[in-house]
């Protein structure tokens, strides 16, 4: 256990150089107690990624001092004398202890002199006690580096190629063989909890053996980076005790049972489906009993909902043994006997599917479990899980305590270290509107990423090192010691429920097969897989332990294994006739809300979105008011007053006012409104001002939270500077309750690029793949204003490419009635505040939910052409297209119109100005406000109303290869085939030329390009 001890004591000089006398003066702890030997130095024994000594060491002296004050005999006689001197008012603090001359040299002085020379007035017992304290501290800080946490003995702890940290060797402190049997007083810094069990002294040999057992067994713990003394002491109280865990026969029976199910599941699949991919958990099967223990303990401490997220590795095992998906359902997916109803979607591979289930726990209480569906994009589900957990906490009115719902994320080791969304997600832990009260992260560490060794996959010793940034404890545990795994999972559950912060469990095991079961891993990791081939399964390791200790007989264990196997066989037979239900796949079931299948045969009535004028004026007054004792910025007063006046008069309502009226009326109707994103409270373009800040204090006021005592909640929150993480979080939030209106807004539309995985895999395809519905709104600023390629485009073309509506055929009358029910999401680009108002309200006033991709123009936020009258809010609904309103005024009648220009968005303002400048009377405009679902019927009817067109133009400000043209062109051709007069007519494109860059980099070039396509529209020079 110990390295050989040298008789030389020259190493003691290194001890002094590192720590004991970093300072020549006497320091003081936070409690004001004089602290000898420079204990306040924060960088003593800095080594690797761990800080050996921190200010918490001063706490040990404080504790000893407090113990001495209560009972002088409780400390060593040398400390008794020291504390007495310190309390003598006739002795100055500097005289209470005098350092020996040879220990006070500068950086190039005499630090390397050994302790046994010239110790002066230093009591040898005091020095011994201090050195033992430092040795114990070394185990607390660095013991994990020596722990037996790697069953393969190639990466951690038992890796013989790596030297044992010198701070964990006795020679580092100048101890010799004769010191091993020297008795040491227990107390602060030296196994104080052993003293509570009645022991007051232990030999150095016993202390070392105890520290080895506590910190270097089959688990290792990193916690000394946590700055909170309370949290560190909480952990020590559960770690530094003679027996950290001991299981009764019944508890061992439960662990064995759970392990049997976990290992037998993998063996059964391997036997029945040897050529199928299943991404098995072999080498890490102990994770399943661990999770079940975690759930049981969490429920005992008040948790009612557990939201799980994980990638594909071990997912089927977790679905079967944790979430309790019927095994016959899983087996039917392997055999292909499960028939997927195509009316409900395309489906997905079995190891991507989610589920929710209510099941009992060992305490007799029930817990709601949900496993979030996920794509193969590793870690993409992390923020989704947290968003869903947050919404559950909100629904349970538990946002203050955050005790009733918990997130559990299972990560691969390579993914945890390599995927940036992990850090984005962990950054939510303390954010007011994103915190979930702590997440338990489980790293299923099989020490390889597909074919890549850890040394090529990360720059840190452990995959978990990232967690130090958020002061989370990190528990490393050997996957082959199932009792240790159970202990650690139980401890993590208690930590989370006590402190409501994250905890990391790094379960170190191996991967029996390649990346999947048909892969040959020895191509790239021959030595690793030679070791794996010799490994005993965790069930065999545990069986041997139980038999040797006499807990169970081999026959008892084999009988239980056989019983479990027979149950799998029964499920396998039932799989042939199994008929799955859609509920099996759902992360959230949305009770009492009809499913798409239930609505499939119904033609749904039009849901009105208009609101009575009196109610609109009530909201208008609220959003332009503030408390009497609240000092609003003088410029903002004018903006808010104008808002109120526009609603009261019913004239000139602008974009942001229209949005506020939508949010306010939804809240008055009882819907909970949540708006999230970077700088959304004020709005990136200083347009929203949803949260007012007192100019002379820290007070804030949110008008939309103060509409009525009975209103739904209104939450608007500036997020962290994250798109991937926050968009995923809001998607997850939207899954829990269809009555939650959830909107994420990009600072600029093109910033959504970094969340493309969430868009592609969850928003665009989630319902078709997993039957999981969402009404999430993405608000994306878009428009070419000469601000360069990074602040112009929300990438409209990408969303339209993801649209699922068939461009080749004009829809039948029945399909026209079902366009919104059948689409995967909606893409809109409204140009009036009233249309914005109606589209936002439409999200909630329907019997189904679809994601909404909402583009909005920065220019139209304040443009005079983007104004609406109050009557447009109190009457009507969302308009898919807006026809030209100038017929008979500035332009001729429809019969006199020769050119019809089709467009989306703010390019309308440039066209409008150019037409006026040219005094063109024969050109009309038609704005398409909703590109998807496409307004086939509306466009057909509108074009038919122009009998004498000679030219039909599509105009856009985006380049040819971007914007709506590629999407609209084939659909326009389909529409024209259905018109009366234009069946063979071609639509002419006018816009920017194809480009690799989104937009011009300077204003002059931008204006030149705009002028060129405007001339082309009007055929003018």
From TrEMBL:
Its top-level enzyme class, in one word, is: oxidoreductase
Q: What is its EC number?
A: 1.2.4.2
Q: Which Gene3D superfamilies match?
A: 3.40.50.12470, 3.40.50.970, Multifunctional 2-oxoglutarate metabolism enzyme, C-terminal domain, TPP helical domain
Q: Which domain of life is it from?
A: Eukaryota
What is this protein's function per UniProt?
The 2-oxoglutarate dehydrogenase complex catalyzes the overall conversion of 2-oxoglutarate to succinyl-CoA and CO(2). It contains multiple copies of three enzymatic components: 2-oxoglutarate dehydrogenase (E1), dihydrolipoamide succinyltransferase (E2) and lipoamide dehydrogenase (E3).
Catalytic activity annotated for this protein? N(6)-[(R)-lipoyl]-L-lysyl-[protein] + 2-oxoglutarate + H(+) = N(6)-[(R)-S(8)-succinyldihydrolipoyl]-L-lysyl-[protein] + CO2
Query: What does UniProt give as GO cellular component?
Result: mitochondrial nucleoid; oxoglutarate dehydrogenase complex
Obligatory cofactor(s): Mg(2+); thiamine diphosphate
Molecular function terms in GO for this entry? metal ion binding; oxoglutarate dehydrogenase (succinyl-transferring) activity; thiamine pyrophosphate binding
- InterPro entries in the cross-refs: 2-oxogl_dehyd_N, 2oxoglutarate_DH_E1, DH_E1, KGD_C_sf, ODO-1/KGD_C, THDP-binding, Transketolase-like_Pyr-bd
Ranges of residues in domain Transketolase-like pyrimidine-binding: 653-863
- Its protein name is 2-oxoglutarate dehydrogenase, mitochondrial
Main localization of the protein described in the UniProt heading: mitochondrion
Natural source organism: Torulaspora delbrueckii
In the record, biological process GO terms are:
2-oxoglutarate metabolic process; tricarboxylic acid cycle
Family, according to the entry, reads as follows:
Belongs to the alpha-ketoglutarate dehydrogenase family.
Annotated signal sequence range: none
Q: Name one Pfam family in it.
A: 2-oxogl_dehyd_N
Q: Where in the cell is it found?
A: Mitochondrion matrix
Keywords from UniProt, A to Z, are: Magnesium, Metal-binding, Mitochondrion, Oxidoreductase, Thiamine pyrophosphate, Transit peptide, Tricarboxylic acid cycle
């Amino acid at each position: 256990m110990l390295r050989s001890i040298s008789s030389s004591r020259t190493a003691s000089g290194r001890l002094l150089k590192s720590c004991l006398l970093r300072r020549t003066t006497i320091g003081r702890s936070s409690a004001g107690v004089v602290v000898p030997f420079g204990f306040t130095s924060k960088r003593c024994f800095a080594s690797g990624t761990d800080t050996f000594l921190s200010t918490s060491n001063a706490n040990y002296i404080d504790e000893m001092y407090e113990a001495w004050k209560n009972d002088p005999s409780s400390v060593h006689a040398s400390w008794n004398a020291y504390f007495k001197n310190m309390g003598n008012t006739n002795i100055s603090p500097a005289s209470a202890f005098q350092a020996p001359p040879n220990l006070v040299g500068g950086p190039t002085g005499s630090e390397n002199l050994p302790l046994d020379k010239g110790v002066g007035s230093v009591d040898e017992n005091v020095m011994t006690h201090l050195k033992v304290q430092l040795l114990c501290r070394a185990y607390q800080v660095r013991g994990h580096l020596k722990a037996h946490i790697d069953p393969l003995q190639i990466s951690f702890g038992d890796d013989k190629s790596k030297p044992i940290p010198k701070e964990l060797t006795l020679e580092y402190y100048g101890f010799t063989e004769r010191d091993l049997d020297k008795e040491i007083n227990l107390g602060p810094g030296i196994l104080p909890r052993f003293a509570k069990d009645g022991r007051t002294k232990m030999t150095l040999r016993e202390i070392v053996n105890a520290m080895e057992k506590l910190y270097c067994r089959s688990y290792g713990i990193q916690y000394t980076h946590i700055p909170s003394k309370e949290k560190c002491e909480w952990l020590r109280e559960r770690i530094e005790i003679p027996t950290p865990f001991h299981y009764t026969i019944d508890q061992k029976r439960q662990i064995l049972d759970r392990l049997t199910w976990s290992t037998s599941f993998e063996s059964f699949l391997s036997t029945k489906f040897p050529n199928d991919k299943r991404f098995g958990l072999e080498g890490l099967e102990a994770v399943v009993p661990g999770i079940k223990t975690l759930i049981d303990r969490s429920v005992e401490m008040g948790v009612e909902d557990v939201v799980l997220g994980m990638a594909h590795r071990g997912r089927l095992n977790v679905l079967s043994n944790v979430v309790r998906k019927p095994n016959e359902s899983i087996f039917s997916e392997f055999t292909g006997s499960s028939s997927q109803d195509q009316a409900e979607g395309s489906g997905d591979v079995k190891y991507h599917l989610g589920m929710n289930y209510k099941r009992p726990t060992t305490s007799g209480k029930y817990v709601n479990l949900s496993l979030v569906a996920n794509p193969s994009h590793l870690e993409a589900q992390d923020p989704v899980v947290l968003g869903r957990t947050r919404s559950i906490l909100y629904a349970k009115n538990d946002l203050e305590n955050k005790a009733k719902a918990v997130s559990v994320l299972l990560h691969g080791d390579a993914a945890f270290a390599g995927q940036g969304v992990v850090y984005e997600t962990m950054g939510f832990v303390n954010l007011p509107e994103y915190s979930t009260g702590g997440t338990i992260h489980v790293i299923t560490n099989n020490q390889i990423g597909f074919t890549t060794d850890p040394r090529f996959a990360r720059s840190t010793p452990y995959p978990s090192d990232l967690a130090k940034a958020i002061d989370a404890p990190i528990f490393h545990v050997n996957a082959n010691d199932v009792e240790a795994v159970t202990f650690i999972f139980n401890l993590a559950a208690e930590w989370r429920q006590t402190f409501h912060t994250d905890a990391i469990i790094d379960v170190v095991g191996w991967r029996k097969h390649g990346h999947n079961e048909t892969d040959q891993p020895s191509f790239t990791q021959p030595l690793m897989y030679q070791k794996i081939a010799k490994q005993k399964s965790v069930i065999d390791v545990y069986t041997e332990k139980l038999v040797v200790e006499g807990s169970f007989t081999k026959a008892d264990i084999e009988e239980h294994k056989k019983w479990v196997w027979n149950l799998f066989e029964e499920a396998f037979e039932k799989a042939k006739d199994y008929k799955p239900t859609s509920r099996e796949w759902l992360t959230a079931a949305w009770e009492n809300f009809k499913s798409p299948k239930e609505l499939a045969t119904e033609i749904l009535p039009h849901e009105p979105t208009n609101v009575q004028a009196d109610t609109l004026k009530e909201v208008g007054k609220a959003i332009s008011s503030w408390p009497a004792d609240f000092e609003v910025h003088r410029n903002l007063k004018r903006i808010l007053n104008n808002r109120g006046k526009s609603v009261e008069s019913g004239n000139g309502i602008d974009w942001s006012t229209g949005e506020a009226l939508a949010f306010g009326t939804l809240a008055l109707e009882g819907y909970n409104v949540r708006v999230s994103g970077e700088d959304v409270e004020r709005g990136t373009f200083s347009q929203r001002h949803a949260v007012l800040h007192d100019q002379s204090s820290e007070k804030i006021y949110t008008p939309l939270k103060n509409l009525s005592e009975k209103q739904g909640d209104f939450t608007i929150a500036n997020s962290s500077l994250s798109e991937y993480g926050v968009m995923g979080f809001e998607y997850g939030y939207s899954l829990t309750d269809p009555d939650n209106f959830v909107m994420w807004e990009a600072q600029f539309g093109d910033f959504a690029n970094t969340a493309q995985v969430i868009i592609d895999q969850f928003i665009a395809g989630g319902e078709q793949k997993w039957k999981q519905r969402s009404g999430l709104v993405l608000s994306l600023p878009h428009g070419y204003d000469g601000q360069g390629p990074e602040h112009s485009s929300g990438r409209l073309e990408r969303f339209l490419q993801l649209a699922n509506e068939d461009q080749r055929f004009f829809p039948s009358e029945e399909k026209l009635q079902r366009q919104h029910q059948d689409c995967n999401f909606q893409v809109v680009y409204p140009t009036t505040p009233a249309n914005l108002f109606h589209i936002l309200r439409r999200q909630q006033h329907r019997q189904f939910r679809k994601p909404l991709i909402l583009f909005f123009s920065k220019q139209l936020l304040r443009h005079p052409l983007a104004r609406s009258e109050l009557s447009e809010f109190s009457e009507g609904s969302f308009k898919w297209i807006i026809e030209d309103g100038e017929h008979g005024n500035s332009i001729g009648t429809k019969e006199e119109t020769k050119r019809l220009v089709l467009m989306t968005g703010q390019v309308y303002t440039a066209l409008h100005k150019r037409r006026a400048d040219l005094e063109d009377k024969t050109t009309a405009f038609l704005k398409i406000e909703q590109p998807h679902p496409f307004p086939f019927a509306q466009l057909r009817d509108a074009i038919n109303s122009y009998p004498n067109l000679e030219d039909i133009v599509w105009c856009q400000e985006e380049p040819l290869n971007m914007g709506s043209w590629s999407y609209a062109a084939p659909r326009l051709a389909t529409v024209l085939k259905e018109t009366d007069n234009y069946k063979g007519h071609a639509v002419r494109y006018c816009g920017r030329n194809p480009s690799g860059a989104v937009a011009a980099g300077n204003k002059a070039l931008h204006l030149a390009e705009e002028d060129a396509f405007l001339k082309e529209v009007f055929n003018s020079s």
